[in-house]
Amino acid sequence: MTRPKTLSDEHVLKIAHQLMHEHGPEALTFARLAKACGLSPATLVQRFESKARLKQSTLHYAWDRLDEKTAQVADNTPKSVDGAIEFLMALSRDYGGIESYADGLLVLREDLRDPTLRARGVIWKAKLSNVLESCFEGVLNAPAGVGLLMASQWQGSLLWWSFDPQGELESFVETSLKRFVSVVVTSTA
Q1: Same domain for 64 and 122?
Q2: I need a surface site. Which of 16, 39, 92, 154 has the fewest CB within 10 A?
Q3: At 77, is the pLDDT very low, low, confident or very high (cuts 50, 70, 90)?
Q4: How would residue 187 be classed by pLDDT, with cut points 50, 70 and 90?
Q5: Which domain CATH number covers 103?
């Protein structure tokens, strides 16, 4: 098999991200990535300089994709309480089963270790909160900060499901979000 002469950084980072999820962040090396994408390790070193920069670039790539998906889903979400649930359900669809979710937590660990990647999380939290807040506009007496509360409920439901992954993740999350909404809407109406 001949090596490709060029691959975009985006394509290389997509492959790097897949490797991270399949084998863990520590397994992302220039040698492994070179084998997966067909470029030489030397070419990858020229592009990314160090393993730390490669890992950080890969994680920024992942954040970019998440930001794009969040914006796309938000643009297609009805501004209603049911729309808030639809929005979070759409973001939940890529988590997969327990093994995939657990592997994702290893990647999240890397985000938490890096201040620039943590900053991406802060920005994403604000985006999620704003989209969810807009879905509660017009709901009588909706509590201040309901968007962040709902985002927190969503993230919590993902975590609680992971401890006892009985049934489908999506079903568990949807039930959790509907309970949250029924409590918030009932208690504030």
Answers
A1: no
A2: 92
A3: very high
A4: low
A5: 1.10.357.10
